[in-house]
């Protein structure tokens, strides 16, 4: 019998495009404060399937990506933004750090609140506090 499913992994792991799209799905979902269960319910899947999509271990079909975009209130193109960087050059460490930061609930909350601090001096002090804590390993 023929396997009609496309190969989703390379010899070294998941396809780079699938990893990128999955990471963008996860980031958008987290920015909206939506759980994997919540997204799964909106697109009629299990949360395990959403996990596999976000990890890049399963490819997302075009129709399912469209449904995900609708559920996450964005355009399909959103999931491919920055892909050229992934394909043509090594990711910049700062970009990796920002992505890691925004993939945490605390990061999303801080990113939302930080710009609301009107005083530039106070924002600088908050940044100094974060840097001091990071240097101390706490």
From TrEMBL:
Signal peptide: none annotated. InterPro entries: Cro/C1-type_HTH, Lambda_DNA-bd_dom_sf, TransReg_Diox_bact_type. The keyword DNA-binding applies. It comes from the Bacteria. Keywords: DNA-binding. Residues 25-79 form the HTH cro/C1-type domain. One of its GO terms (cellular component) is cytosol. GO terms for molecular function: DNA binding; DNA-binding transcription factor activity. PANTHER family: HTH-TYPE TRANSCRIPTIONAL REGULATOR (PTHR46797), METHYLPHOSPHONATE SYNTHASE (PTHR46797:SF1). This is Helix-turn-helix family protein. It comes from Asticcacaulis biprosthecium C19. The lineage of its organism: Bacteria, Pseudomonadati, Pseudomonadota, Alphaproteobacteria, Caulobacterales.
